[in-house]
Amino acid sequence: MVAEAHTPGLSYSYPPGWSIVSWDGASSFTYMVAAISNQRLRNPCFHHGNVFGCGQPLGRLQPGAMLVEWWEDGYPLWQLADQPGSAISVDGLPAKMEVGPSASSACRGTGASRGISVVVARPQAPGNYFQFIACLRGPQLTRETSLALAMLDSARLSSG
What is residue 105's DSSP assignment? Predict the structure, then answer.
């Protein structure tokens, strides 16, 4: 059995029983759609008077744990061709994937053994893209990587 999440422009599957959080932490150019983990997550955003900010939805990954984040981003002049990684396709849209210990700065400080970062262009909205980030902590990186890529493969994205 698979759990599913649906947001405007993005739907995806994840393992049942996993923790999922979403919150309104949008800035001018970036919005975290959701974070999913086999570890308990917390809302990382805070409000103190007029000050608002967000950090990580968990402190540190336990052995065998994963943190997956979905983002909607947009920056003037952003282009897929300028992004690092290997060309792939996600739900028929052009994308680039980078895998490695430092593939995503979002994984820093989590204790991740491997990061996966995928940016997916939105051709109907130039300068806008989806980002999939997976932070994995071994010992079974092959299994964890396969699971993260299955979540990515389940994505259905709106190109606009």
Answer: G
Tokens of 148: 């993260």
C-alpha 129/C-alpha 73 separation (Å) is 5
**Sheet bearing 30-37, strands edge to edge:** 19-21, 30-37, 66-74, 128-136, 114-121, 93-100, 86-90
What distance in Å separates the CA atoms of residue 118 and residue 98, rounded to the nearest whole number?
6
Find, among 147, 154, 159, 11, the residue nearest to 67 by Cα: 147
* Amino acid of residue 14: Y
Domains of the chain from N-terminus onward: 3-157 (2.60.120)
Q: How confident is the model at residue 1 (pLDDT cuts 50, 70, 90)?
A: very low
pTM for the whole structure:
0.89
